[in-house]
Amino acid sequence: MLKRFLTSMLGTLAGIWISVGLFFLLFILFILAIGISGAKQTQANIKDNSVLYLDLNSVIDERAPKFDIISKIYNQGNDAVGLNEILYSIEAAANDSHIKGIYINCDLSQSGIATRTEIVKALRNFKKSGKWIYAYGDNYTQGDYYVACAADSIFINPMGAVELKGLSATTQFYKGLLDKLGVEMQIIKVGTFKSAVEPYILTEMSEPSRLQQQQYLGNIWGYLSSDIAAMRKVTVEDVNNWADSIIITEPAQSYIARKIVDALAYRHEVESKMKGLCGINKTDELNLITPAEYFSSKDLLNPDNSSNTIAVLYAVGNIVDQGDEGIVGRTMAPQILKLADDENIKGLILRVNSGGGSAFASEQIWEALEQFKAKGKKFYVSMGDVAASGGYYISCGAHCIYAEPVTLTGSIGIFGVIPCINKLLTDNLGVTQGTVSTNDNGGFISLTEPLTPFQRQKLQVMINNGYENFVGRCATGRSMSVDSIKAIAEGRVWDGKSAFELGLVDKLGGLDMAIKDMAQELGYNKYAIAEYPSLEEELINSLMKGDFNLKSEILKKELGETYQYYQQINYLKDLAPLQCRMEVVEIK
């Protein structure tokens, strides 16, 4: 009887596990089917008299977002669009007889300044084809207006407004919050301008931090105001007058005389004008093609079906030792070594958009890139909105570094941060503890005990050594002396134009320039672009790990705007002791 019972029980358990396995397999197949279906739905019919529709109403990331399982299950759209899709589509549309022009819908997009600069340059190149660009907005944010200035004509709703006010940078300080919690951030750093630690130890901006922000903001605004003036055929003084007069408070009618816009019109009137330009009846619908649709309908990464391949590796987000988000040293370094061993890859462009992070992970990625170069292959870097601190660390060894004039870079400095939660435990929670050690520093490093003077001194030596290593990497990579690097280091952040003048950057330009220059150096008349990491591989890995981001999605929904503070506290909890990171600055 016992034997029959055990046999029956084991059979039942086996059945349950087989059922669970089959269910999981069917779930994966279901999700993949949704992904494939979604991909097919993005394909568009590129017929005659089509218009490329640049809809600026969402977040613009470096790449189109990877497949989001949760959004699909709950039918929530992921509105982020990829800068890569936008740029490749604009370039291809210039020579596509089916595309008559570009329609820019300005509606509160979110992106960095360098991202917008690359779009503006692409639009300017598109205009050389002789095709038209129209921009329309019910209201224009400053960033959207800058992109709209590349259009032949800017239209605004008669009741709309334009925001143009110059730039400001805001840094949030957490010391007051940490004091209330009973958390002390113990900081050891090198670099007068290394202000990434200031939010944790100060309640307001230091003078060095204010100085560097004032300088790079002034330089960036100088570039933007000059660019707007050139596109609108006015003077820089005019643009500054617009900003100083707070034109968002003025009636739209006044914008025409000041050349801020070209005409007042409602959306349907603008679209009627475009129908005329396309030669279609006013009763017909415009065939609007988004960059995502255009990108999926054509092989824009290999239009000539070439076997010559240039790899573009995206390094976006915080640099971390391990994890699933950002630039993960443990996965990116092997990815680079794999590309180094790929005989079909002769050149690599690292697209960097990062304010840095873990010094250890930055070193591992730097070393892997050195291995790539040791194979006799070309390595370029294209900097996005920011490539600073650890972001510069992984860039400094490139044969050629490209940045936009408005890119934030440099911040060559290093710091260590060790939270001490002793007051949180004892004063706020009433928790006490006792420790027994065989040696004086047996409990080093402890989150519950403050550093002793000796421990702090030893950590300072380690930070100093890390700084010397960082500076040495930069000096070797840039073919400069260590003293020359130190003179512009100290954790100071530079705008791209200043970095170019100082020798930290080789050329002012975007990803398209880096790709074309590398193709020329490699002797490629025709070439394919291979983007890494593969979005398909990321999807499969997420499925196999069951990584559906449920926790983060729920927290975002429940916490709303306060989610950023949860992220900050969670980030501090897992922070690597040695950091190459610039401060988080919100530029408006």
Provide a short characterization of the protein structure.
Helix content is 46%, strand content 19%. The radius of gyration is 27 Å and the shape is globular.
Explained architecture:
By secondary structure, the protein is of the alpha/beta class. It has 2 domains: about 45-165 and about 245-295, Alpha-Beta Complex (2-enoyl-CoA Hydratase, Chain A, domain 1); about 310-430 and about 445-585, 2-enoyl-CoA Hydratase, Chain A, domain 1, CATH 3.90.226. About 45% of the residues lie in helices and about 20% in strands. The chain is built from 23 helices and 24 strands. Strands 11, 14, 16, 17, 18, 20, 21 and 22 form an 8-stranded mixed sheet that branches. A 6-stranded parallel sheet has the order 9-6-5-4-1-10, with helices on both faces. The chain has a 4-stranded antiparallel sheet with strand order 8-19-23-15. Helix 4 (about 115-125) runs parallel beside helix 5 (about 140-150) and helix 8 (about 205-230) crosses helix 9. The longest helix is centred in the N-terminal third of the chain and has 41 residues, at about 1-40. It is globular. The model is unreliable at about 20-40 (pLDDT under 50).
List its traits.
single chain; 588 residues; alpha/beta; 2-enoyl-CoA Hydratase, Chain A, domain 1; 2 domains; eight-stranded mixed sheet; six-stranded parallel sheet; 24 strands
The parts where pLDDT drops under 50 for at least 5 residues are 20-42
Helix content: 40-55%
Number of strands: 24
CATH superfamily of the largest domain: 2-enoyl-CoA Hydratase, Chain A, domain 1
Based on CA atoms alone, the radius of gyration comes out at 27 Å
Q: What kind of sheet is the major sheet?
A: 8 strands, mixed
What general outline do the C-alpha atoms trace? globular
Secondary-structure-derived class: alpha/beta
CATH class of the largest domain: Alpha Beta
The number of helical elements comes to 23
CATH topological fold name of the largest domain? 2-enoyl-CoA Hydratase, Chain A, domain 1
Multimeric organization: single chain
Tell me the distance between the termini. Answer: 77 Å
| Number of separate structural domains | 2
Mean pLDDT: 86
**Amount of beta strand:** 15-25%
